[in-house]
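for ur thesis appendix - Glucosamine-6-phosphate deaminase 1. copy paste whatever u need, i formatted it the way the template wanted (i think)
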Amino acid sequence: MRTYDYSSDVELIAIKQSGFKAKYAPQEKIRVLEVSDFPSLGKITAIRFIEWCQKNPGGTISLPTGKTPEHFIYWTSLILKKWEDRNIKKLLEQYNLDFSNKPDMMTFVFVQIDEFFPVNPEHENSFINYIKKFYIKKFGLDEKKAMLMNTWISPRNPDVNLGEIFPDGKVDLSLRYRQPVNRQEQRQQETILDMDQYAMEYEQKIREIGGIGFFLGGIGPDGHIGFNIRGSDHFSTTRLTPINYETAAAAASDLGGIEISRGKIVMTVGIETITLNPTSSIIINAAGESKASVVRDAVMNPPSIIYPATALSKLVGSCFFVTTGAARLLTEREIKQLKENKSIPPMDINRIVIDIAVKLNRRLNSLTVSDLLSDGKGSVLVEKGLDIKQTILSLESTLKEKIEKGTKNIGDTKFLHTGPHHDDIMLGYMPYIIHLVRNPSNSHYFATLTSGFTSVTNAYVVMQLKKLEEFLKTGQYRELSDKGYFNPDNTIATIRDIYHYLDGVAANSVEIQNEASSRRLLRNIISIIKDQDISSIKRKISWFFNYFETSYPGKKDVPDVQMLKGMIREWEEELLWAHLGFNYDHIFHMRLPFYTGDIFTRKPQLQEDIKPVFSLIEKISPDVITVAMDPEASGPDTHYKVLQAIAAALKLYLEKHPEKKVRVWGYRNIWYRFHPSEADIIVPVSMNSFAIIKSAFNICFGSQRSASFPSYEYDGPFCDLAQKIMADQYAMLKICLGREFFYSNPVPRIRATRGLTFLRDMDPEEFFAEARHLKELTETEDTIGRQE
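the 3d part is after this line
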């Protein structure tokens, strides 16, 4: 077995720069390198990779797929491409790299970590396609040396693709052990056993070349590395294996929906495959607060099948490279930081005290100094001489004030509610909107900044097109068409589509609902083809059917299909706000062009993305703008980019109108949540509000009803997850304030509380500061220049 050089000046220097130790034993079992932000994570990982390549020419490397490696790919390819650049030389010298020793990337052997089974390697969502596009091509690797997992060609019969053997993409691994019941199952059994043999031979090849020398991976929502999901044997080898719900949910967007990914199996190298060579360098990347719990579980637990990455603790060369957000739950690091702070910000103090109360299931006013001393972070507060009694009294009063603020009647206010996607506003703070709209002196406008087409499945569009075909055969269609109902300029008819659908809901008539949906779908197709001729419409419908029949789920759609899917989402949002009496003229579909459906999307541009938002703000002149506000690398990338577009547009607006007073309300929904200490407005949610959210979601968001692209946290529709989050937030504050505060409160809305919604209330400068901070944590800034 080859002996690799895993020593690293890069890690030593970067760990020293971080201000933390590599490992805080005995709590931490694996070394950790903490960096401030997502771009820095990719940058330092790239430099470490280059260092390893210099020391281990011709070695074996395994690199990950997905979004996490974005900055790693950028920096590695940039360094290799511009090796002679003086800025590159300066960068490498900072970490003691030998500038005269450029790695010969053609000498390295690339080993693929995992792949869906079966999947056509020519498809854009295959990992092979990703590897060829981003690693072999960009890094200049030798494709002939690459060990790639072909899960599409039968080893027994190379002329047969596995799509023919598994026509629905479902694989029943019980065929390994049971008798097949028909010829199709017999072929499938033979193929599964052939692929088991293929996996064993793949493993053998890795062992013959001395194992993996440099492994870079992400960590999944259940803590998986590769596709070694929770419960995987630490002595596992390359194999076919099913995946769990969390992994299927994370893969749903790649494969075209949970309906497809849930039934998928995968081929993956095993945990023992990864850890086989004791001299290998194994780096796990994790960015953002949403990864904090899986990082904690992997780093702080002894080897356990519940936490697959704990297997890495036996290797000297293993290290977690994480952002500050992802390291948030590594307790000893948090304690060190608190001790070194001259003063602890009030928000951090409140977070610590609330967390202790919730952990002990004790009211705030019953906490004692002993309770705080029993907690590592709480003991720091005591050591710093904090007046615990006064702190708790102040915190209790502050929380009550925030709740009272959430029940306050607001009037004479113009709101611009913004969302990255069409259901984000609803899932974030619909219970507050229900109350805000009751005051007629308020005005409300709703803007969705992207078209959201990636969250509509092919199957859903096909179902709607079939209903449209039936509608076109009816006399009702001919009568409406003759009256000019589908004329693109007929805005009255466009609004009638919406109210006709809601009339169908009120009458419990699926027939009326289907007819209204077909009217709008027809209107959308006319808009796309710019032709009302029935022959042209039918040709386009046939074109759509052919497209979906010949396209594979998860593929990046062509523009007309993107447009149609986006229009379906826009229709759904119009149905939602019509519940509250808002018409077409109060709803804005921005369709910002940065939203492309690519795995790595560009930043919002001034003319194309920011100026339209500026124009909208100028048109409405709002007093309050709401913004989805997720922390770095948490939630969809779209949320972050929409926030930056709004921040840039608002800044332009205030430069032009300095006299205007604007507040910004930040909200979160199903992707991440505010801690109570971060919230400024806490809105009580009643059973009535929960019922409205659930009913309206299921009535309006037909494309989302089946939860085809769910959160890994919850196996069900987003409205149910939103309710769970609101209920959990209420449970936290019920512990802190005591149930009597809610049950015996003189305010009926507070007595009726069964959930809570949290919002941040900011002036523009606070918002701009948050946006700048997120930008620093998320975007690469360099002096060398982005390559094409």
